[in-house]
Amino acid sequence: MKVLLMEDVYKLGRAGDVKKVADGYGRNYLLPHGLAVLATPGALKQVEEIRSRASSRRSALNQEMGSVADKLANLVLAYPARAGETGKLYGSITTQMIAESIKAKTGVTVDRHQVDVQPIRTLGEQRVHIRLTMDLVPEIRVIVHREGETPDLGEEVAEAAAEAEVEAPAEV
Question: What is the pLDDT of residues 76-105, one digit of tens each?
Fold first, then answer.
């Protein structure tokens, strides 16, 4: 089935693109949600108008989300977890847990579907991408460490934490 995308669709294309998709995907998801229309000759005449409208919407959205991306760009999240001797976790760090931690730490609401990572099941540091828009994808660090141990947050984060501790008594 050939469809004309009316909206940007993650992992498929941008608005105004003509794509060949599986019949079920088009019929059951893209068409009912208004993300695409059938690629008929009449619809193909509107491609330029759709692209211009989408690019103006995309640029406005990118400007709005730019400040959010700046907040998330240098974010480091640390999770204590129980793990076996090989470093494999008994549970996992899920996208829902990451989204909740982002909201608690920055106040920015992120949907769990925007967190682009498989559940984390090992100790160590992971780079996680947050898909705010198709163009804005800030990267955060997620550090998973054993319960009872202190995480190795890196030099730049340790320095920032030390500066925050130094500044805090001065404000009192």
Answer: 999 999 999 998 999 999 999 999 999 999
Q: CA-to-CA distance for 148 and 9, rounded, in angstroms?
A: 43
Q: Are residues 156 and 114 part of one domain? A: yes
d(CA 121, CA 124): 10
What six digits make up the tokens of 73?
């760009």
The candidate with the shortest Cα–Cα distance to 36, out of 67, 12, 70, is: 12
pTM above 0.90, yes or no: no
Q: What is the CA radius of gyration of the chain?
A: 21
Tokens, residue 68:
């959010």
Q: Could you tell me the CATH number of the domain that includes residue 33?
A: 3.40.5.10
Range from 131-135, 143-147, 157-161 carrying the lowest mean pLDDT? 157-161
9 and 80 co-located in one domain: no
Question: In terms of residue numbers, what domain contains 165?
Answer: 68-171
